[in-house]
Every structure is written in C-alpha cells, then in structure tokens.
C-alpha cells in the first residue's frame, strides 16, 4: 500500500482497487449484485480510508469515480449509494457539509422575492396573473432550465421543475444530502415526473438529464428507506 503520508490519494486508490478485486473474485461486483455484507464492507472501508487519510468526501468521491472509470464500471448506478453513505460517515470539516445542507434545505422551499416585487395594479386596471401563474410562450420541446441563481428560479414560480433541478444540481455537483431532507427529495421527484409528463419533455441540458434525476432519486430513496 502506498504511504498515506506521502500520497493519500494513491493510498485510497489502492484500497478501492483491492476492494473491487476482492468483490469481483467473490462474484459480488458490480456493487448492485453484492450482498448487504459486501456492500457494507465497501462503504465502511472507504469511510475509514477517508477518516484515516484525512481527505474529504469530494476528494474521496473523485478517486472512487476515477477508479470506477478505469475498471469500466457503471459509476452512477453502482457507486452512488456507497458515496451517499460515506458522506454521512466520513465528511470532514473542510467540506462545510452542515452549511451546505442548510443551504439545500432553504433552496428546496419555494420562496418569493421580497424586493423589487411588482406593484399592485392601479384601481380600475385589469389585474394580471401573478408571476407564479403567468403562462409561458410556446418555445418548442420543453427543457429543464438551471439558472445561476436558484432562488430566483423558485421566485419565478417554476416550482416543480426548479425544485427537481436544484436537487439534481446539488447531488450531481457535490452529493449534498441529509437524512432530514429525504422527504423533500421524494416530493421533488414526484413533482418532476408530473411536470415531465404534463409538458411532454423530450430533452434537457446534457449535464443533467431527466433519466439521471430519476436514477439518483430512486437510489437515494432506496438507500434511506421509503
């Protein structure tokens, strides 16, 4: 095993590769085919590696993904459950995990802008629909939209698509997850499927597809119980 003091990333990579080899020899890899005992072995070993080598969750996930790609494994399906588990066990202070979880909790609640809110129509004028109910112009096949300001997305009233999009971005880019947010994720998943069906969604931005949201949602719900 490489010296953790000299190269912690190589040390974790070595451990992951050996775990994969052990599981393959036991016909328990990919991980979705493994027994609960072997899955727990993989998760706990990776968590211990992260703690003992003092690396954070994001660094560990990058290493795991790199090894999985080299081994031609389906990293999205096979390793995500383990990574979510590692997040709760092996995260270190540098990830500011709790702060991110709080941000996620706030973003997952539909909000309205308090400033620059449109003034009420003058007396006698015809009232228009509020922003949250204003119909969109037809623009061809609908696409999921992820603005730079996620809070503004909620303020425009695109609650179903945006709430799902926020969760997708959070999980895709950092794996932010917290047990108490599971109900919000399940709600987002339901909203997203309804929005997709109602709008006959045919495509979305390449960096986050409806299929990936569906997969991550199912995996997370499966991992933490319905």
From TrEMBL:
<protein>
    <submittedName>
        <fullName>Uncharacterized protein</fullName>
    </submittedName>
</protein>
<feature type="region of interest" description="Disordered">
    <location>
        <begin position="108"/>
        <end position="147"/>
    </location>
</feature>
């Amino acid at each position: 095993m490489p010296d953790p003091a000299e190269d912690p990333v190589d040390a974790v990579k070595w451990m992951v590769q050996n775990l994969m080899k052990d599981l393959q020899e036991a016909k328990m890899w990919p991980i979705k085919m493994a027994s609960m005992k072997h899955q727990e072995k993989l998760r706990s070993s990776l968590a211990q590696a992260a703690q003992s080598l003092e690396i954070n969750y994001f660094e560990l996930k990058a290493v795991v993904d790199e090894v999985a790609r080299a081994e031609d494994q389906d990293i999205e399906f096979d390793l995500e459950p383990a990574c979510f588990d590692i997040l709760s066990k092996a995260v270190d202070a540098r990830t500011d995990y709790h702060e991110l979880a709080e941000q996620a909790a706030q973003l997952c609640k539909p909000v309205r802008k308090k400033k620059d809110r449109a003034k009420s129509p003058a007396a006698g004028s015809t009232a228009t629909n509020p922003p949250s109910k204003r119909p969109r112009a037809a623009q061809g096949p609908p696409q999921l939209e992820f603005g730079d300001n996620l809070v503004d997305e909620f303020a425009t009233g695109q609650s179903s698509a945006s709430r799902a999009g926020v969760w997708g971005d959070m999980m895709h880019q950092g794996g932010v997850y917290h047990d108490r947010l599971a109900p919000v994720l399940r709600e987002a998943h339901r909203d997203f499927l309804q929005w997709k069906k109602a709008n006959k969604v045919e495509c979305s931005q390449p960096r986050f597809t409806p299929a990936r949201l569906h997969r991550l949602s199912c995996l997370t719900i499966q991992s933490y119980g319905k």
